[in-house]
Design goal:
With 416 residues, this protein is mostly helical. It has a 3-stranded antiparallel beta sheet.
């Protein structure tokens, strides 16, 4: 235990959450990749669990390394990160790998790299630094709020064509970060209203163009977004095995058959029908095998505990930058997790969001590990500052008590 405390600094509860999520990830991915292995690897599930374990190990290594370094260095590189991210998103949008009419990834050294994962983290770090440095001018609309909102809009617009849900989640988290950063509520409300109306008009226009015969990648994506919402509200079930609503329907069956206590480890049936049971709908498979009590509620509790522990870290921060940093990174992890779980149980239309640190993936797991590392870096310095303060208080109290005793000793003899 002393060895763990020596090398693993920061909030031990957050380390425990990372271990818990990783444990569920290994079990669930191994169980849910059977059909994938049958189609593409001759039934050899070891290929996928080894690959997933490798990415998970990389994410945890990044979390460990980053939590050692002071978070203040992030403020210095925040502008460089955003300068790198915007061109990467632009390149991905036009030259990325086409997957279901969406270009989300760039090919790098035989692998694919999802640039939106880097963009989410980079934008939050940038926004936290700008908010911290502009607190005295935060109510200046033209000088402070508008430039930050434009940067948020640029990043989200570049993500939106390929991944509407990621752009929406990132936009919502950034707006909440601006609100917590003391930006004017009226100004935020006005900017958000304009942005939402513009986005709705854009989607409607692209959908209209697709129906009119303008068959392009962007118009097809707009048609996909509209169809997902329409099918969700209508309850239509398509027999196409790759259909979005078909997947949502199979996920509901998995949740229903799992019940309170589940069917047992590795006894999922719906994993054979869900094309993305190892990523987008992995929460449904977890409930089917472990049940709502030992699977669903435990995972929900882990994410809620993460949110609670980060709130405690924020309250102990004596500077605004680390507070904004922890708030933004933790919120986007928890927000994404609950969006994924809501889709799996049929509360929201299909979005394609992975379950952070649980779903099988590459860049998603790595950058989630990086985000945890940053949160733990802030926690490490906050916890490191607590002990000297307590010692100082004890020392001051002791000195004051000794002074009082000396005064009493001097007064008493004179009175006698």
């Amino acid at each position: 235990m002393n060895i763990l405390r020596k090398y693993f600094k920061g909030d031990p509860n957050i380390w425990a959450i990372i271990v818990g999520l990783s444990f569920f990830s290994l079990l669930a991915v191994y169980s849910s990749t059977g059909s994938l292995a049958y189609r593409w690897a001759g039934g050899n599930t070891a290929i996928y669990i080894i690959r997933h374990s490798g990415f998970l190990a990389i994410g945890l290594i990044f979390a460990f390394i980053i939590h050692i370094f002071p978070y203040k260095y992030l403020a210095r590189i925040s502008q460089w990160l955003i300068v790198i991210v915007v061109p990467l998103l632009f390149i991905t949008l036009f030259f990325g790998v086409d997957e279901n009419y969406a270009t989300r990834r760039l090919p790098i050294f035989g692998h694919t790299f999802q640039t939106s994962d880097l963009a989410k983290m980079a934008l939050i770090i940038f926004l936290a630094q700008r908010l911290a440095s502009k607190q005295n001018e935060i109510l200046d609309f033209k000088k402070t709020l508008l430039p930050m909102f434009i940067m948020i809009s640029v990043v989200c617009v570049l993500i939106l064509p390929a991944n509407f849900s990621t752009a929406g989640i990132l936009f919502a988290v950034c707006v909440m970060l601006l609100f917590v950063g003391r930006a004017s509520f009226k100004q935020l409300l006005g900017l958000c209203s304009i942005t939402i109306v513009a986005a709705a008009l854009l989607v409607a226009s692209l959908y209209g163009l697709q129906k009119a015969g303008a068959d392009t990648v962007v118009t097809r994506r707009a048609e996909t977004w509209v169809n997902r919402v329409e099918r969700y509200w209508s309850g239509e079930v398509k027999e196409d095995i790759l259909g979005d609503h078909f997947q949502a329907h199979q996920a509901k069956i998995a949740v229903g058959t799992g019940g309170l206590f589940g069917n047992g480890l590795g006894k999922s049936v719906q994993r054979n029908y869900l094309p993305h049971s190892y990523s987008d709908f992995i929460f449904a498979i977890i409930i089917e095998e472990y049940g709502l009590v030992f699977g669903g509620l435990v995972i929900i509790l882990l994410y809620l505990t993460l949110l609670y522990r980060t709130i405690l870290i924020i309250r102990k921060c004596d500077k605004t930058f680390p507070a904004f940093l922890v708030f933004g990174l933790s919120l986007i992890i928890v927000f994404q997790a609950f969006i994924n779980m809501a889709v799996a149980v049929g509360l929201l239309p299909v979005t394609g969001q992975p379950l952070p640190l649980i779903s099988m993936g590459g860049t998603s797991i790595v950058f989630t590990g990086v985000s945890f590392g940053i949160i733990l870096s802030v926690s490490r310095e906050v916890r490191g500052n607590e002990e000297p303060i307590e010692r100082k208080k004890t020392k001051n109290n002791t000195t004051e008590q000794e002074a009082n005793n000396e005064t009493e000793e001097e007064i008493i003899p004179q009175t006698a």
